Amino acid sequence: AEGLPRPAATRVMVVANQKGGVGKTTSTVNLAAALALHGARVLVVDLDPQGNASTALGIDHHASVPSIYDVLVEGKDLAEVVQPVVDVEGLFCAPATIDLAGAEIELVSLVARESRLQRAIDGYEQPLDYILIDCPPSLGLLTVNALVAGREVVIPIQCEYYALEGLGQLLRNVELVRGHLNPQLHVSTILLTMYDARTRLASQVAQEVRDHFAAEVLNTSIPRSVRISEAPSYGQTVMTYDPGSSGALSYLEAAREIALRGIAAETAEAKGAQ
Ligand code: ADP
Ligand code: MG
């Protein structure tokens, strides 16, 4: 992977879709690894009690490991829980443990319950180009914390029949958070995942998504690939598990698009501000 231009400021990207199994975690860890292989410094925040992103990055996340739960509920510094990912330089992870399952309830009674992740990220002093937040499949307080902390929303969409159902609810939540808590929040990126170009349904759904979200959908879609689904059981992303595979190459290309679109957006914003 060649080097890519790095963003002027850390891009905080929330990978969300309240539907389970659409490729949130897979896309979070592989895009993060791909961006790191392109030369960026990247932190993955695992915000799903399942801890699948932590597992896929080979990060120890048994119950006693300092985790994002301690950050959100106990007010621990993010720096105290971040671990380096051993086989990818520049890639880091704030793991989730099973404790996080209780956080959704515990957060309810805490002060500034919606902005605890934002505060933790603001207080993190290590230089980073990207923070990717892997959300659970719900729109509860954990996802709200991510939406308050982030600036960009990345929505992975699986090209199947019900793909667009439920998306309206996510978009309304993004609007609500934008209106009340985080004026800069917007959907910047839509990624088509598990795409099988041979089926007519997949290409129809892909076309429908591209018609609705012309500017946000990446040109690159992620193919359905056994190598992608095997990698986590080796505690690896497909980027190191099988770097030459179609899955790895498509995540590298998607990461490149994300990096270049970010630079284009920065330039447009700078011009607009003049
Ligand atoms: P989510 O985080 O949205 O619940 P996951 O990323 O865990 O979704 O993906 C759901 C399942 O689909 C996992 O078993 C994962 O390995 C598999 N998967 C994800 N992307 C692909 C792909 N491109 N090709 C094949 N399997 C995939
Ligand atoms: Mg997941």
From TrEMBL:
Its biological purpose: May play a role in septum formation.
Protein name per the record: ParA family protein
Family: Belongs to the ParA family.
UniProt organism field: Yinghuangia soli
Residue ranges constituting the AAA domain according to the UniProt record: 11-186
One Pfam family here: AAA_31
PANTHER family: P-LOOP CONTAINING NUCLEOSIDE TRIPHOSPHATE HYDROLASE, PARA FAMILY PROTEIN CT_582
